[in-house]
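pasting for the record
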Amino acid sequence: MAKKYQAIETKIHWITWTAMASIFVLLVTLIVVLQPSRETVFYDSYLATTTETNFEKKLPRDNKFQFVDSLEDGFLGLSKGLYTIGKNDSNLTIVFFGEPSNAQSANHIANVYARLYGSSLVDPTIAASDLYTELEDQVTLYYFEQKAAQFEGTVKSLNEYYDAEINATALPLVLVLLNNEVLTYAVLSDANIPLQLVNFYDSVLALEEVQALLN
């Protein structure tokens, strides 16, 4: 009788563990599936803090922003850092440094995007920059989320790595890289930010290094 009871007990124990494991896998799967995507978190965070009235028309939810998380590569090189991305000699890298809780970042990121890629949703429409129409797939816009308290240290690291002279003390910053070199940058602080960006993108296109990409 004791052996028979033990066999039944063992069978129930195995079924119980299998059921528990199945429930655990189901819960993990649900958490992953229901977790908002990075793109969604990025967009909704800025949408909640911006005062730009045409934000959604200038920066659509389905946009071309790529994400970079750090200056250095991640563990085992699984995620590329900005230093690696900026080494590309056939693709122009434009990086927007900002964060949603920074008022200037929240108010200007839509114009950074629209003045590069254009927008047909606003009236009057915004034409794509000559920089984009000339380079097309050879220019990529990245987003680097940067805490204001860490920005000074990031700029220092950039200057040391690139032997550059980036003079920026406040967010947001737009940085242009090509072939492991800082070509230029813009601190968005002018009274007319859209005009500043139009002129900035035109000046980037006029650079000798950028013109060489077109030949």
